[in-house]
Design goal:
alpha+beta; Alpha-Beta Plaits; Molybdopterin biosynthesis moea protein, domain 2; 5-stranded antiparallel sheet; 3-stranded antiparallel sheet; 8 helices
């Protein structure tokens, strides 16, 4: 009876699986990230920045799934449905969201292309430019941008939203953004799925915008502070305001009381004077 042919597995694939198993066992966090449309140069820059924080590996889906099977970590089996083409896997001992925040902060701005959808309002700021007068004047005018020529260059007189959030970018807007060096998009590693290796918890569609989050927290804190002050809620953040308000109210009451005392004395004096005049008339 003929023996079945054995499928030969390339040694490099075997070594890759072993390395992945080690990484799974030695780390706390796994991130599946898209590298679609990410230039090689920028990918290498990100990899360099990740040294000491994370190890990043570009691997085919079947190799990664084989490593998960070999690791005997059942928690990771559910990751299979989230693997995509053009993906990289990051392994780290850092907190998952701390690493995702790092990826978010290490994106590079890129120019807009006609047909892309604006992820937020795109605005042209007021101020001077390095654009000489010429065809650009009509291009700017077609977008409703108010301009003037100052010192031989075009100046924007009023800021203007040229593409609203959700709108497709038109050729004219893309051209002007290129001339003004406006780069409204960012490119980098995009997390597809974040996984806590030990617990198997998976987080999807994680979008971290540190600056926006900090601004939202600042606005919320200010609103909360104003509300707490209005309610006269005592805490270390409100006590100074409340004491100041109490002192101001006390001063106002003292002033009102002093005025009332003065008015009472004036009234008493007037009554005495009237009595005196009435006495004179009786005589």
């Amino acid at each position: 009876m003929a023996k079945p042919n054995k499928i030969k597995v390339a040694p490099i694939k075997i070594e890759t699986v072993k390395r992945l198993v080690e990484l799974i066992k030695d780390n706390e966090t796994m991130i599946l990230a898209s590298i679609k449309n990410l230039p090689s140069k920028q990918f290498q820059e990100i990899r360099k920045k990740l040294r000491g924080k994370s190890e990043i590996i570009v691997v085919k889906k079947r190799i990664m799934l084989r490593a998960i099977e070999k690791s005997e970590n059942k928690n990771l089996e559910q990751l299979e449905q989230h693997f995509q083409e053009d993906s990289a896997v990051l392994f780290s001992k850092q907190d998952a969201f701390e690493l995702a925040c790092f990826l978010s902060e290490n994106k590079n701005p890129i120019a807009a292309r006609a047909g892309q959808e604006a992820i937020e309002d795109i605005e042209v700021e007021e101020g001077p430019t390095d654009i000489p007068p010429g065809p650009a004047i009509s291009e700017l005018g077609s977008l409703g941008i108010k301009i003037a020529v100052e010192d031989g260059k075009i100046a924007i007189k009023e800021k203007k939203v040229i593409v609203k959030k959700g709108e497709k970018i038109k050729e004219a807007a893309a051209s002007i953004m290129s001339k003004l060096e406006i780069r409204p998009f960012k490119i980098g590693l995009e997390p597809i799925a974040i996984c806590e290796i030990k617990t198997g918890k998976i987080f999807l569609n994680v979008k971290i915008d540190k600056e926006k989050t900090i601004e939202e927290l600042r606005v919320s804190a200010n609103k909360s502070l104003g509300f707490a002050q209005k309610l006269a809620y005592y805490c270390k953040e409100t006590i100074g305001f409340l004491l100041g308000k109490a002192n101001a109210n006390a001063a106002a009451l003292e002033k009102l009381q002093a005025k009332q005392v003065a008015d009472d004395k004036t009234q008493e004096a007037q009554i005495e004077e009237n009595k005196s005049q009435e006495g004179e008339l009786e005589k």
